[in-house]
Amino acid sequence: MIIVLKPDAPPEAARELLARIEEKGLTPLHMPGSERVVLGALGDERVLAELRLESNPYVESVKPILAPYKLVSRELRPEDSVVRIGRVGIGGEAFAVLAGPDAIEDEASLQETAQAVKSAGASVLRGGAFRSRISPYAFEGLGAEGLDILARTGRATGMPVVTEALSEVQLEEVVAKADAVVIGARNMNNFPLLKAAAESGAAILLKRGLSATVEELLLAAEYLLHEGNDRVVLVERGVRTFETNAPAMLDLTAVPFIKRRSHLPVLVDPSNGTGRRELVAPMALAAAACGADGVLIDVHPTPPSARAGGAQALDHEAFRRLMRSLVPVVQAVGRSLA
Amino acid sequence: MIIVLKPDAPPEAARELLARIEEKGLTPLHMPGSERVVLGALGDERVLAELRLESNPYVESVKPILAPYKLVSRELRPEDSVVRIGRVGIGGEAFAVLAGPDAIEDEASLQETAQAVKSAGASVLRGGAFRSRISPYAFEGLGAEGLDILARTGRATGMPVVTEALSEVQLEEVVAKADAVVIGARNMNNFPLLKAAAESGAAILLKRGLSATVEELLLAAEYLLHEGNDRVVLVERGVRTFETNAPAMLDLTAVPFIKRRSHLPVLVDPSNGTGRRELVAPMALAAAACGADGVLIDVHPTPPSARAGGAQALDHEAFRRLMRSLVPVVQAVGRSLA
Amino acid sequence: MIIVLKPDAPPEAARELLARIEEKGLTPLHMPGSERVVLGALGDERVLAELRLESNPYVESVKPILAPYKLVSRELRPEDSVVRIGRVGIGGEAFAVLAGPDAIEDEASLQETAQAVKSAGASVLRGGAFRSRISPYAFEGLGAEGLDILARTGRATGMPVVTEALSEVQLEEVVAKADAVVIGARNMNNFPLLKAAAESGAAILLKRGLSATVEELLLAAEYLLHEGNDRVVLVERGVRTFETNAPAMLDLTAVPFIKRRSHLPVLVDPSNGTGRRELVAPMALAAAACGADGVLIDVHPTPPSARAGGAQALDHEAFRRLMRSLVPVVQAVGRSLA
Amino acid sequence: MIIVLKPDAPPEAARELLARIEEKGLTPLHMPGSERVVLGALGDERVLAELRLESNPYVESVKPILAPYKLVSRELRPEDSVVRIGRVGIGGEAFAVLAGPDAIEDEASLQETAQAVKSAGASVLRGGAFRSRISPYAFEGLGAEGLDILARTGRATGMPVVTEALSEVQLEEVVAKADAVVIGARNMNNFPLLKAAAESGAAILLKRGLSATVEELLLAAEYLLHEGNDRVVLVERGVRTFETNAPAMLDLTAVPFIKRRSHLPVLVDPSNGTGRRELVAPMALAAAACGADGVLIDVHPTPPSARAGGAQALDHEAFRRLMRSLVPVVQAVGRSLA
């Protein structure tokens, strides 16, 4: 860690800080320059959080040398992690397609979609039982009943299932019945929920927050690993910017950026990540091309009558077309469908 | 609501939509133009959510005419709402100063700060017991013990107290011991938590999410009122943008924008809203000048040794200076301290 | 165009507006609702700009029905435009690779790079003579001398050349010696420069501004076509957001979004669009996968000694590797190299 | 400057960099840590730009210690600069109000507005002759004729006048007839235009770009001072964010942030900075409260018939009301009208 002192910092301020750095077991460094005095602290700088350097009135800026995360980093674990969701491995050589409706509406409709996406090449069934929303007037999902429908449909079609939990209570129910739990974008920093998810031992799909940096996504994952659960899959699902042509801007650069720095698998959600049906297929292909380990796709039998997410859902035929165009791209980058 | 059809929409698509609009009890309108057919639906368009117009393959765009919120709007209730936190009214003519530490550390220190801010003119004591954070390595607060310290200090100094709850379980504890509960920026759309807060009947300080639009803040408040609790105070606390000179960009335009459209009181948090000590006082003055109903200020006896928020906390002397410069501005806009 | 009146608008305000809409040759519509009066204007609404509806004190909001651009739209010209840069066509079935250094440094080095990129499959040579920059202390380019080097190197290698002009004076020089002129991100709304570029008749690579919406990019292109030059290629080159892991966030969703709405070709610049060497190749592949008509790639013989852009430049070997991985993706989407 | 090497950097890489740092006349430092080797370079690090450290394949990150600007900084010149526009000083104790129409339309109307704003307390007349715009269908201003009208009206009313130039040619005309030239937000990084403005010796109002950081604004100003013209006034005029309730988000935190770091005066433009009439007055008051040296206000005799900017313009009566509420706030912070 590098600590730049203010021009008016007295020599004692530097001496005191150096002493405290040494107390913490790090190697202190004193670099008096012509315009500023700079201090250094070499070693595991995460212990310096307790020194509250930013609060010191003589400190102008603090520049970390190491990434703020450790357990999720490739430096610690160079090889790709593979996270199993039921019998499907996410990460490694295979490219996984997780598909299903934004909101589960009824058993017949979900079964129809499950069969359709399975036969087209999807390996995991997704569907919302508990729904996050921004308006009290939007559909909140079927809840526990939806979860049961999802679990039964998964068994009937032989597909592992994943779904979101919004609270600690819901999480318990989800973990009991699904093969992986989704922590949604709006809950990426909901630490009570993260803690419960970590303690459950379940596989976790952790979605990037709408205004979260990639580093913050990695820090949220770090928390999960730190609490003892390394079955974590990261999901890029679009961020919020000034652009108004779509509800979110899918940040595909996050994929190669994370793959360099972390051993965790990375999925892309081009459906929520763009919010517009016409953009889903091209962005799914782009995700495959830039190194994602899979995609999450909203599929609904008849999107115009969907109770939620209809603007971004593909119907069964559009999903089959997407899969036909996706496979050659997956192969072009040397991978194959999970 | 205005519905623009795609150029290739057949006449039956328009006819079918018009029939469905009429079924919902709204007045349908047909406007065939030279380049597009436009449909209208006049009446309470919130019921049209069920028509899922955005999902219709023949619909190019949907333009609402009315705001998506109703209960929080000035159209429904033209006069300013005043929300009581203990004996202090937030909203109306008075300007309220809520002050205290980001994180409660121990009873002696909190009492010292409480006395200092009270004698300088603050009317409500704030302090964090359960802390939201983005890194597993940051301080998570004293929890229930901190809450007890806060409650005792409030009684001892005769100040109402407010503090944040991060989960439904914490919310119950907070509501039992504090005069108002804070829903933090990261939980603005945590609907299970909002529901519990609404049902508690407690006064709620609802903070704007880091990437929430003002309309989304008003929708989250709408949810609270819709669930039966109108003791809601909105808090502008900075948003996330491309600018890196501070952790957040305080959006003061939100204040007059909301005051025009909603009867709810609006506070400004220039401490979390800028994250930099040097910006707190000027932004507090600006908040008062543009019509805010009060400010939340981080105060700590010795910021360099604060366990959290030290970079933005004012010490007791700096808080007194702030209050001395704030009072003339509050008076210049025709108000007085609560 | 839909005009929503304020709740307190008197009937005469509506009558007056309807009369003015009719005067302009549009069909006026009157839709009195329970909460708001809504007016409509059907026809070519672009002429309504003169009515300054947003300024009317009784108007709450104005909602256009048609896109604000026309000449660049697919509705006007459904088939893909192909813009010739020398003998290379941009747009249509072929995928073009434009490669070369951010800043031209000397003739030997540029020739070396030109040979290297040509033999690896690039079809157009790019290189900066006049450089845009944000600090007075950064390299401003070789200027006219660089332009001459570029022109000679293009002739020597048989490659068309493109380079940026920052002012009307530079534009004249560039048009005289290069096969296409680049209008950089910082000049997307520099109308005097756009006007000069349009009048020159040269092929134009128009880059999206750092905080420009896609609609604004299309409007800037509309201006060029409106001034009589339809040899316009759009370039997505990253936008500015809250994310700090790279200097820009490449917005690939812009590619399919534009391809749907406009007949103009779209290139992607993953070098400037990410600013980080490690992200260039994955994003180039993603660009090809989602439908771009080509890519612009920074290439330099020895990036560590580049006078500008070194952090994002590929060396010759890395560029060859990129081309080897790019070709299968280009083929997977049914295209081939230009 | 601090240089963090990658984990795989060989010892020679460090040695070579240290040698080059020493060659440049800076003091090199070697700090081998357990996880990374860190190098330091103490002295005027601006000369290190030539080392292109970011491009070095063994360099992980480069962290500057000093601000990238120097001439504009308070460290170099601690006292406030005052820039004279005609007989009016901008900066120092006085608070200046610059008012007038977005676009000059005709002489009678401008004279009427000039008289109105002068008698209400404005000291400088502003008005657009050459207009920046984003659509080819928007009004481009009266050009040279508008400039003549502005100059005559300034003389007739005894007010100094300021107006924008969009190109080098326009700049010459503006400098000849106006008391200060405005460099608009879209031209903040138009270096040919900045160079011409610097060389003219005229007073310059430099507006912050829509997506420019405060540091970039200071760097653009640095360029002007570096070219020999220190008559520079900075203008905060709103930035582009995800928020859609107004065309721009006024960033008032920029004011105290800049005042701390730079000796240059800072104005705020709440008209363009919000784009909504209802927000202009509250934000003007807030600007005064947080330390701005003045404001720029759009004023038009009849905003609903304004050819441009009507949505944000105040009419004469609204401007008088604004001035009446502004004066007490200006006095509350210990200043008086210029």
**Rg calc of chain A:** 23 Å
Strand proportion of chain A: 15-25%
> Oligomerization state of this entry?
homotetramer
Structural class of chain A: alpha/beta
Nearest-integer average pLDDT of chain A: 92
Largest interface: A-B, 46 and 46 residues
Portion in helices of chain A: 25-40%
- The DSSP helix count of chain A reads 9
Low-confidence stretches of chain A: none
**SSE run of chain A:** EHEEEEEEHEHEHEHEHEHEHEHE
Termini of chain A, distance in Å? 43 Å
Which descriptor suits the 3D outline of chain A? elongated
Query: Biggest sheet of chain A, open or closed, and with what strands and sense?
Result: 9 strands, parallel
Extended strand count of chain A: 15
Describe the structure.
The structure is a homotetramer of 338-residue chains. With 338 residues, the first copy, chain A, is of the alpha/beta class. Chain A has 9 helices and 15 strands. Chain A has helices at 11-23, 107-120, 144-157, 168-177, 191-200, 214-226, 254-261, 277-289, 316-332, and strands at residues 2-5, 27-32, 37-42, 59-63, 83-85, 88-90, 94-100, 124-126, 161-164, 180-183, 203-207, 232-236, 266-268, 294-298, 336-337. In chain A, the strands form 3 sheets. In chain A, strands 7, 8, 9, 10, 11, 12, 13, 14 and 15 form a 9-stranded parallel beta sheet that branches. The longest helix of chain A has 17 residues, at 316-332. Chain A is elongated and about 75 Å long. The model of chain A has no long low-confidence stretch (mean pLDDT 92). Chains in contact: A-B, A-C, A-D, B-C, B-D, C-D. Chains A and B meet through helix 4, helix 5 and helix 6 of A and helix 4, helix 5 and helix 6 of B.
